[in-house]
Design a protein that fits this description.
4 copies of one chain form a homotetramer. Chain A contains 14 helices and 13 strands. Chain A has 2 domains: 185 residues, Rossmann fold (3-Layer(aba) Sandwich); 166 residues, Dihydrodipicolinate Reductase, domain 2, CATH 3.30.360. In chain A, strand 1, helix 1 and strand 2 form a beta-alpha-beta unit. The two termini of chain A are 18 Å apart. Helix content of chain A is 33%, strand content 20%. Chain A is globular, with a radius of gyration of 20 Å. Chain A is of the alpha/beta class and 361 residues long. The interface between B and D is medium-sized, with 21 and 21 residues.
Chain lengths: 361, 361, 361, 361
């Protein structure tokens, strides 16, 4: 590729905005041309995200639809769910983008659920763009690589779903799961998952020396996980129960999903099945028997590390997924999607790209 | 009670030894007469546990069976599992204690499992004292209060088992659980659970900014949980799967246990059942609907906080238990047991005793 | 003492309010009769501070001056600085309290500085009650025990000042300090110092895996430290420079103060001088040579631990003070003050009181 | 540069070894040919450092001098201080390297102090190679760029010295410091500073929820700081006092150095002086007035962030330095040195290299 991708970032002053900018500064084909912020407009990005000091002279501007459309090849949308859904529709002309060369990657949850009514139930807002919802491609490259290649609009997956779906996909895709049994997910997240909006629950004084479950059985990522696991299995799943926790570390998610298998499989065959499923997937790493993923092994990277435990007597399988919630669980995956859409190697600009791009071909 | 309990502590230099001493210093009927240490013998306790500086002039001595027998009313055994089992047998004359006035509280796992063969499987040592094993009372006061009252030897429960059993007991005791379904336990522990023996896994550099599962399906507390839940239910349980994690906080355990109920029950009736089961149990606190326990609410106390989630459609129940692993999960519970054995109110000397002793009568 | 102290707490819903209530629940002469909150009025205290669940049925009320005056023996004022200064004046009738039996303990900074003009410079509000300012006794019991005994209004010291003044007092009181040299204070605080008011700076995501200096040379506790060190030395001090940091732990402060001594003193004499100064002060513990205080040794207690380093060649002395910022640095010290004012042993109701009350007489 | 640098790593299984490998995997001119380990020989590097899983197939070998000499262009020595000094002499033929094309970068402290006798005093071993000691170049590129360019042996600076020297260099180099006054350094380090050797002091249970000073006035980095500040000032310094702390975060060091200036300077001139001194130094970032460095802004990078506070009345200056202790404080700086020695841009392969290499030319 000889020319750079002109990038617009809508909502650049939040926490994910900062990490996206940091990653893109190490991406040799990225040229950030617009970064918007409504709360901190006209300010140097590096004054908002101090870790970018001396690295990034660009100033934020207020969002302007035409400016985005006329100047960008790729637009990252980093607004909170619900907040920007209608404007996203306008920006993409309800999926009939005027300029077919612009690609959109929406980090919010607004276009992830194919069934619009689920937004009312889980997100408490009425979705107004069924058309774009159907055209949006769920941006999990390990599953939807080909669709992403041809997409113009990516609904970038949520953090918990990324870890859960990737760690469970080979089981569901091979129809190995008893869909009538409960799928129980324990999902432990670092505090960056909550972003930078100040509220008492996320104060350090409430998080340090503590761990707390929240939204048990009610977390809005539940239907997203369900949709994708059902898609993989091509069968309805009776019950998915997500138990999320906030823990006292900054970055990372570790999920542990318990599933009942529908048929006997040996532990060795289980591992084979996983290795086969993720062959040539540079960002998935499968741990050996009796070894389990840890946050410290994936922090700062776009990896999803997977661990497996199988109780052969009872066909109960525990799968673990471990990602950096802000990278593979948000903006790293977004860059992976951008790379695919723009014909680059999917690892381009992400940590260990040199090594990964060679080894995975 | 007019006179003090003369206390011996075998293994006073470890982490639990320090916390036991700290609690006993606030116990008005406790008189610590002997504290043994083989690694740091002849040293002031407060030089070993610096937080006891200026508070405790006693020096450690090397363990001597006769000295213990001749001078103590109550002996706390704080050795690692396996290490002291044979000497415990000698010390208690295989359960035929010469001086019937001495009470023993064993914090190790050596006398918790009634089935001696389980020690070979889970603890890798051969148990040599079936007699004492049968006489030992499992020291979970909320379940075995009467037995503890008349006991001379207490097998003090493990940390994970305390949180799991207490949070699940009303379900099992009321035979509400489908014993053929998997019981899946996610159990997150602070680093104090590993004590102070130096090894790479427990270095701060391996624990900070990290969370890691370990011994998945193989943790030695599994048979202890199984034994007690089966006792409560009076029925064999097919599969208990314990998934332990180490997390970056110092004190505390949070366990989340998923069970399939064998019959429909409304969420309100479930709460009633719990409140009834734990009536007059000062150290158990049941959270309201959609509220969940957190480490910060129990740190430094002998409480076990319990949270409940019920998916009424699928009869899937999630119970959470939250304790300070070193207090209710070890030495606080040991003091509670001592109190009961010596005819004191069970809360004596423990945090909030004044309030709890009044309110729970 | 046969009857209980009727206690009013103004501002009970903040973080210090919670810890004050927790400590008072373990104080056998405390009877909490009123707890006010304007933001969470009419709510059970234990719903605001969840760690008090099942322990404290009292509900908050809106502040009412007459209700306080008519029902309380001792009033703790826990409002932010500046916010309540004028009402405090009215409540105490400008220091001419109608009912001379009521004692006040103000945890805020509003009556700590004798020089009213300093409030304009450091706190950005104009102080309106010179009279009460002069009558208020600075509540550092290790220095002002006799004054506190006879006081009706206590200005409870700040957290940094408590650690700094106590660790440096023997030097200044013995006129050993070169008052023309810089007094440099590095003061590291846990996040509880910031209370529970939500703002971005104190979010866990900004505190975890981080340490940050703030208000270097401009922290409002600087003039408080200066006032007290000058009082001890009876001489003006040229320059005190406070460098505060927020660090990723919940409770505790560690201060390191560098001072140039005005005369040669041996390290042994220095230690003697400290031990003499703090003879019979139950809450001060002096570490041995080459040993230094640590947060973990004082957390949850009312201790101030002190460490000393002396460079004998250059007369440079480093003194370290270590306290639980919310206990000895706020509400524990407030209880110590209450105890003294009400004729109780100063350790009453505080951790290790039994032992400390005996040993310090 | 068309060909890769063949790299040998002596001591690859320790903590710094892991991070060095991680960084080199992102360096396009690095070809790691040998990685030695005596404790974990013959094992895949990625089994030792799990975060390198799937990234690095090389196996460790036992150290062999000839193998190193015959196969490497650049050798990183990562042994503990004292342990390898004599072998380093043999490896380099006492500085008379047979093959002049091999470059050595010693991460240990063994060749940092020009005065050999200081090793006896501070490191407790007798240094046996005065010759190599004199030839070794202290690898602080912001000060010794030209010398490094022509060096064959680099003594890579210590972590505390890097932060202290860089943050204070403009003051000393401009002879602005009163060399008779105390230089007081408070230096707070994350736990990675202690590496992975298991001992009680560095267990998570001793570090979590804690902060602790250690080796006050006795830390072995003191003479290294003194040597370099005296070199910069060309004058002896009377007293440097280093107060190190361990704090509960993984990576990073923040140092605060108090110096008395020898002459009046305005705050604006002070900033000018710093900006001038560090012109075209891509890894040094100077913060604006009243803004201070934080660990979170430098973690994972090779930056040294600097903050300044000046009390204009008293000429007291506080300088802060903030680095990732394992990167700019160890292996990142080592790579920077390698780049310079091999004619690459000094930022090559380090985070933000693309941006930094352009902007700093």
């Amino acid at each position: 590729m000889d020319k750079k991708i002109k990038i617009g970032i809508v909502g650049a002053s939040g926490m994910t905005g900062g990490i996206l900018l940091k990653l893109l500064l190490n991406h040799k084909y990225a040229d950030i041309v617009i970064a918007t912020s409504e709360t901190q407009t006209g300010i140097e990005i590096s004054s908002i995200h101090n870790f970018l000091k001396n690295l990034f002279p660009l100033k934020t501007v207020s969002y302007n639809r035409n400016q985005i459309i006329n100047n960008c090849d790729c637009v990252f949308l980093l607004k909170s769910h619900g907040e920007f859904q209608e404007e996203t529709s306008r920006l993409t002309n309800n999926g009939l983008v005027a300029n077919p060369n612009i690609k959109f990657i929406d980090i919010s949850a607004d276009f992830r659920l194919k069934n619009a009514r689920l937004y009312e139930q889980w997100y408490k807002f009425k979705h107004s763009d069924i058309n774009l919802l159907q055209k949006a491609v769920y941006g999990l490259p390990e599953i939807y690589y080909q669709k992403i290649k041809n997409a113009f609009f990516i609904a970038n997956p949520g953090c918990y779903p990324t870890a859960v779906i990737l760690s469970a996909a080979p089981l569901f895709s091979n129809k190995l799961v008893d869909s009538n049994s409960d799928i129980i997910i324990n999902a432990i997240s670092g505090v960056s998952g909550a972003g930078k909006t100040p509220n008492v629950r996320n104060l350090a004084v409430e998080v340090e020396a503590n761990i707390k479950p929240y939204k048990v059985g009610k977390h809005q990522h539940t239907p997203e996980i369900k949709q994708e696991l059902e898609y993989l299995m091509q069968e309805p799943i009776k019950n998915i129960l997500l138990i999320p926790y906030i823990a006292p570390f900054k970055y990372g998610i570790l999920t542990t999903t318990s599933v009942k298998l529908s048929e006997k499989i040996s532990i060795d065959n289980l591992f084979n099945l996983y290795h086969q499923f993720y062959q040539n997937k540079p960002f998935v790493r499968i741990y050996n028997k009796e070894q389990y993923p840890e946050i410290q092994n994936i922090e700062g990277t776009n990896f999803c590390d997977i661990g497996l435990y199988l109780d052969e007597k009872t066909n109960t399988c525990i799968v673990m997924g471990c990602i950096d919630n802000v990278i593979k669980g948000a903006v790293g995956q977004a860059i992976q999607n951008m790379n695919i859409m723009f014909g680059l190697h999917e690892t381009e600009g992400l940590p260990f790209a040199d090594f990964l791009s060679k080894s995975s071909l």
